[in-house]
Specification:
The protein is α+β, with helices and mostly antiparallel strands and about 100 residues long. It has one helix at about 80-95; strands at about 15-20, 30-35, 40-50, 55, 60-65, 70-75. It has one helix and six strands. The protein is globular, with a radius of gyration of 16 Å.
Protein backbone atom coordinates (compact mmCIF):
# COMPACT_ATOMS: atom_id res chain seq x y z
CA UNK A 1 0.00 0.00 0.00
CA UNK A 2 1.41 3.39 -1.01
CA UNK A 3 0.68 6.50 0.95
CA UNK A 4 0.50 9.56 -1.21
CA UNK A 5 1.78 12.71 0.47
CA UNK A 6 0.21 15.91 -0.63
CA UNK A 7 1.53 19.32 0.34
CA UNK A 8 -0.94 22.16 0.27
CA UNK A 9 -0.10 25.82 0.69
CA UNK A 10 -2.91 27.10 2.85
CA UNK A 11 -1.99 30.77 3.21
CA UNK A 12 -2.61 32.87 0.13
CA UNK A 13 -3.07 36.26 1.84
CA UNK A 14 -0.87 39.31 2.04
CA UNK A 15 2.17 39.74 4.27
CA UNK A 16 2.89 43.26 5.46
CA UNK A 17 5.91 44.39 7.50
CA UNK A 18 4.55 46.85 10.05
CA UNK A 19 7.66 47.78 12.00
CA UNK A 20 11.38 47.06 12.15
CA UNK A 21 13.30 48.01 15.28
CA UNK A 22 17.07 48.07 14.92
CA UNK A 23 18.95 46.39 17.79
CA UNK A 24 22.55 46.93 18.91
CA UNK A 25 23.55 43.27 19.33
CA UNK A 26 26.35 41.15 17.81
CA UNK A 27 23.96 38.62 16.23
CA UNK A 28 20.47 40.20 16.28
CA UNK A 29 20.18 43.10 13.84
CA UNK A 30 16.52 43.89 14.49
CA UNK A 31 13.11 42.78 15.66
CA UNK A 32 10.06 43.11 13.45
CA UNK A 33 6.29 43.00 13.60
CA UNK A 34 4.34 41.70 10.62
CA UNK A 35 0.69 41.42 9.67
CA UNK A 36 -0.63 38.29 7.98
CA UNK A 37 -3.97 38.83 6.27
CA UNK A 38 -6.81 36.91 7.97
CA UNK A 39 -4.43 35.81 10.77
CA UNK A 40 -3.26 38.99 12.52
CA UNK A 41 -0.15 40.66 13.90
CA UNK A 42 2.92 38.66 14.83
CA UNK A 43 5.64 40.41 16.84
CA UNK A 44 9.09 39.36 17.93
CA UNK A 45 10.49 37.98 14.67
CA UNK A 46 14.25 38.44 14.89
CA UNK A 47 16.43 39.58 11.99
CA UNK A 48 19.82 37.93 12.47
CA UNK A 49 23.24 37.85 10.81
CA UNK A 50 24.39 34.27 10.24
CA UNK A 51 27.66 33.74 8.35
CA UNK A 52 27.33 37.13 6.66
CA UNK A 53 23.77 36.41 5.54
CA UNK A 54 20.61 38.11 6.81
CA UNK A 55 17.92 35.65 7.95
CA UNK A 56 14.94 35.61 10.28
CA UNK A 57 14.09 33.58 13.36
CA UNK A 58 10.52 33.08 14.56
CA UNK A 59 9.39 34.48 17.92
CA UNK A 60 10.45 32.31 20.84
CA UNK A 61 10.24 32.11 24.61
CA UNK A 62 12.64 30.85 27.23
CA UNK A 63 12.02 28.31 29.95
CA UNK A 64 14.16 26.47 32.50
CA UNK A 65 14.43 22.68 32.30
CA UNK A 66 16.49 20.95 35.01
CA UNK A 67 18.31 24.21 35.72
CA UNK A 68 19.18 24.79 32.06
CA UNK A 69 17.67 27.70 30.11
CA UNK A 70 16.12 26.50 26.84
CA UNK A 71 14.25 28.24 24.05
CA UNK A 72 11.10 27.20 22.21
CA UNK A 73 9.44 28.77 19.17
CA UNK A 74 6.07 30.36 19.86
CA UNK A 75 4.75 29.67 16.34
CA UNK A 76 5.35 26.97 13.76
CA UNK A 77 4.96 28.20 10.20
CA UNK A 78 4.38 26.13 7.08
CA UNK A 79 7.69 26.14 5.17
CA UNK A 80 6.51 28.05 2.08
CA UNK A 81 4.83 30.67 4.26
CA UNK A 82 7.96 31.09 6.39
CA UNK A 83 10.06 31.52 3.22
CA UNK A 84 7.68 34.25 2.02
CA UNK A 85 7.75 35.97 5.42
CA UNK A 86 11.57 35.93 5.51
CA UNK A 87 11.82 37.22 1.94
CA UNK A 88 9.47 40.13 2.70
CA UNK A 89 11.26 41.05 5.96
CA UNK A 90 14.75 40.88 4.41
CA UNK A 91 13.65 43.13 1.51
CA UNK A 92 12.25 45.71 3.96
CA UNK A 93 15.37 45.43 6.14
CA UNK A 94 17.64 46.17 3.16
CA UNK A 95 15.54 49.24 2.28
CA UNK A 96 15.80 50.75 5.77
CA UNK A 97 19.50 50.07 6.48
Amino acid sequence: MRIKKEVLTVFEGKIKVLEIEKIDHPKIAGITTIYLQDIGKISGIKIVHINGEVKCEPPNRSFVDNGIRKWQNVFSFERDLWDKIQEKIVKEWQKCR
